[in-house]
Amino acid sequence: MNIIQQLEREQMDAVLAKRGVPEFGPGDTVKVMVKVVETVDDPKDKKKKGAVKEATVRFQAYEGVVIARSGAGINENFTVRKISYGEGVERVFPVYSPYIGEIEVVRRGKVRRAKLYYLRGRRGKAARIFERTDARARRLNAAWKGFKKPKGEAEDLTQIKGIDIDLQNRLKQLNCYKVEQIANLSDEDIANIDETLNLKGAIEKQDWVGQAQRLLAELTAAEVPAEEAKA
Predict the structure, then answer these.
(1) Domain assignments of the chain as residue spans, ordered by start
(2) What is d(CA 82, CA 88) in angstroms, rounded to the nearest whole number?
(3) Can you give the pTM of this predicted structure?
(4) Which of 7, 116, 139, 207 has the most Cβ atoms closer than 10 angstroms to its Cβ?
(5) Which residue windows are coiled coil (predicted)?
């Protein structure tokens, strides 16, 4: 591996540490969450010279059919086509772009071509793609999506060493946002999270379960004296 490939691999790993890349191809319907950065003008600061504009980040969903996927490594990209107000709209997304928050496969299509540019000249039923129902499609659709959403407010998971803000947000996408959930992770849960978020064994190496259990024990010990005082 030369120096350029090594640098590209590091950049790809940095993106994969924040989000996963599902298995998809031409014919699949995907939903791409695109990060949009907006600057908001404060009316009070208009008269001030050199006033700093506040930047807000939101995610915009772009859903359509993948008509092409090309390139390799960090230069890999895919083209998504959708019909908006009767007009065909296409966008090309780099697979490892930092401006993509998530890629979700909505439906898997059954096609026999690697490039579906013929869809540009079709409308309505003529542009319909049949859904894949073979064993491979069932296996991909049955892939682990996350936990059942627990009740209550989200907790600060950054108390656990090894979980930063970005990783906490990715865990929330899997409906994991309570310390108790991490304290009760089974071996299967650990394997699923590790594979989905590409953590490379960080859960066991950093002992997330042990840290979470100690945090729960400390919270329980702090609550007991308070209840005894009321009694």
Answers:
(1) 3-141, 157-230
(2) 6
(3) 0.67
(4) 116
(5) none
Task: Report domain 3-141's class.
Answer: mainly beta
CA 58 remoteness from chain centre: 14
Q: Which residues contact 144 (CB under 8 A, 6 or more apart)?
A: 192, 195, 196
Q: DSSP state, 96?
A: T
Mean pLDDT of each 10-residue bin along the chain, 231 residues long: 87 83 93 87 61 77 95 94 92 94 91 94 90 87 84 90 88 90 94 88 94 92 63 54
Q: Which two three-digit tokens encode residue 62?
A: 């772009």
Q: What share of the chain is helix, strand, coil (3-state, %, to 5)?
A: 40, 25, 35
Strand residues in the chain grouped as ranges (E): 29-40, 54-70, 77-84, 87-94, 100-107
117, 109, 129, 143: which is closest to 22 by C-alpha?
143
